[in-house]
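The record is passed on directly below:
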Amino acid sequence: MKLTLFFFLIVFASCNKVEYKGETVHNVVGKIYYAGQIAADGCEWIVEIESARYHPEDLSEEFLENDLDVVLSYREITSK
């Protein structure tokens, strides 16, 4: 019994805690671009926000439109 309790204490103590850095939701305007096929050294779809470019891993079909203006909402999180 003591060994089981000790095991659970170790497991829970080793987990990373993710906390919201405030409750402020940030809204930014971005643009979605088609950058060419991956096979031809392209990146397929790119989201550009304030001159920084990001490669989305899972972009819904409704957003697969070149030069599409979008508004993105996010909250910053930190790991402790």
About this structure: The chain has one helix and six strands. The first strand starts at residue 18 and ends at 20.
